[in-house]
Specification:
With 207 residues, this protein is of the alpha+beta class. It has 2 domains: 31 residues; 171 residues, Sandwich (Immunoglobulin-like). It has a 5-stranded mixed beta sheet, with no helix packed on it. A 4-stranded antiparallel beta sheet has the order 2-3-4-10. Strands 5-9-8 form a 3-stranded antiparallel beta sheet. It is built from 4 helices and 12 strands.
Length: 207
């Protein structure tokens, strides 16, 4: 009879701990050990020489601002861009987040900026770029192809250039503990992550 009591106590402790972490941080995700800076849409983040993007990529001299964002059902998205659902990178995703970035290159960095370095993070979920859809929704001639994968992997701008780039992120219902949140994604807090260290810089996405 003691084991069920012990298990119940452990569960209650974990629930209380999660509630405490969420109350303090607004998130159940591991918190960064680096200082954080938060930006709004239309505000520009410049990447310095010392800055590392997520997955330790570089983009020295580039700047980013989120100019627009929308949530769209996957079926509607497929019809809009003329793709089959089976051709999506994540065919089980029911919704997509599409963000519109204004990107500038004001430095001497001659490498490309990978989409893997620009994840979106919510309070207890995250998502990465769907390269197949992102390739379809962009017309700017700055995308970089991954020949092995047969799709795009990032973008590169000439020095002094500015481009508008769209990125699509898949959203699955099973990533959300509460299904009601998935049905009301426009009310969710979510951020585009720009740099990881020495300062974690992120842009709040609003609709």
């Amino acid at each position: 009879m003691k084991k069920p009591v012990i298990i119940t106590v452990v569960v209650l402790i974990l629930v209380a701990w999660c509630a405490r972490v969420y109350a303090l941080n607004g998130s159940l995700l591991p918190q960064t050990k680096y200082p954080e800076e938060f930006y709004d849409m239309h505000e520009k983040i410049e990447v310095g020489e010392e800055d590392d993007m997520y997955n330790v990529f570089k983009a020295t001299g580039y700047s980013f601002s989120v100019e627009d964002a929308r949530i769209i059902d996957a079926d509607d998205y497929a019809d809009e861009i003329g793709m089959l659902r089976d051709d999506f990178n994540d065919p089980k995703a029911g919704k997509y987040l599409e963000i519109t970035l204004e990107v500038s290159n004001n430095g001497d960095y001659d490498g490309f900026v990978p989409f893997m370095g620009l994840p979106v993070s919510g309070t207890d979920w995250d998502s990465g770029c769907d390269p197949y859809i992102t390739q379809e929704i962009n017309t700017a001639p700055v995308l970089v192809m991954d020949d092995a994968a047969g799709t795009i992997c990032g973008f590169i701008l000439d020095k002094g250039a500015t481009e508008t780039i769209k990125i699509a992120y898949s959203l699955r219902a099973n990533n959300f503990i509460n299904g009601n949140r998935y049905e009301n994604l426009e009310d969710e807090k979510m951020w585009l992550m720009i740099t990881m260290r020495p300062v974690c810089k992120r842009i709040l996405i609003t609709f």
